[in-house]
Amino acid sequence: MQGQVTPAGKRITFELPKAIKRAEKLTLTVKVEGTTLQNQYPLWVYPAMGATATVPSGVTVVRQFDTATREALARGERIVYIPEKAAFPTNSIEGFFASDFWCYPMFRSIALHHKKPLAPGTLGLLIQEGHPALADFPTAYHSDYQWFDIVMNSCGVILDTGPKGFKPIVQVIDNFDRNHRLGLIFEAKVGAGRLLVCTADLKALQDKPEAVCLLASLVRYAGSEAFEPRTEIDATALSKMLDAKIHLRQGE
Predict the structure, then answer these.
(1) Which residues, in sequence order, are CB contacts of 33 under 8 Å at separation 6+?
(2) In the chain, what is the straight-line distance between the N-terminal and C-terminal CA atoms, in Å?
(3) Contact status, residue 63 vs residue 84, Cβ threshold 8 Å
(4) Coil, helix or strand for 8?
(5) Phi/psi of residue 130, each to 5°?
(6) Ranges 11-25, 64-78, 139-153: which has the least confidence
(7) Phi, psi for 204 (deg, rounded to 5)
(8) For residues 202 and 111, what is the distance between their CA atoms, to the nearest angstrom?
(9) Are 41 and 27 in contact (CB under 8 A)?
(10) Helices in the chain by DSSP H: which ranges?
């Protein structure tokens, strides 16, 4: 019936092709026989990968950007930094999947007037879909539903003080009022070392196959010859951007 959700009366089951050995985006097409009516639904399929991603030799995954991490970078090591949600950088915007309303300043003033929490006010993701860091994580250049839990457990680090032209691998699009350069996944050469940052708490999402898949793709990239960040950022400047004091975020 128009205007309502009506059960179709059938449960769809099917076997996936045995040829699928890696994560893929599939499309389910449902048609009404004898008519031109049809609809399509995206499906993301992930291989069984165990409880967590295997970290390649020569790569270290850290949860804090502290003195030990900076010293490891100074020695020329490869570091993947994935902060805990409770210790996300204070210099950041809270992650939120849905795009903001059309006029952030107006809704911000209304929220402040009524003493309500402010919405993050971001506008989705801009993704370098061909980047090798995402080679094993199927994605388009924009947000889609395989990013939902990842984004909702993330933050966008404010990278305004980064080098000119610095482009995150996955950028959070800010609204026109603030217009910050926000990074969700980005890389940099730090001294003799190489750093890959993901400010989604993937470690806390190991019950989500998409999070396990993304983490596996990132650490595999960090251990490969392709991991050669072009942008160099001073460790002191990076420390300020990734200031990660444990704090309560707005609304908690």
Answers:
(1) none
(2) 41
(3) yes
(4) coil
(5) -95, 5
(6) 11-25
(7) -90, 0
(8) 31
(9) yes
(10) 67-74, 104-113, 148-152, 209-222, 235-241
Residue found under tokens 């609204």: 175
Whether residue 84 contacts residue 154, with contact meaning beta carbons closer than 8 Å, is answered with: no
- Measuring CA to CA, which residue among 111, 115, 139 is closest to residue 127? 139
CA distance 207 to 52: 9
- Number of DSSP helices (H) and strands (E) in the chain, helices first: 5, 10
CB count within 10 Å of CB 125 equals 25
Residue type, 218: L
CA distance 202 to 181: 22
Q: Would the pLDDT of 217 be above 90? A: yes
**Whether the predicted model's global pTM rises above the 0.85 cut:** yes
Amino acid letter, 35: T
pLDDT band at 12 (very low <50, low <70, confident <90, very high): confident
What is d(CA 95, CA 200) in angstroms, rounded to the nearest whole number? Answer: 9
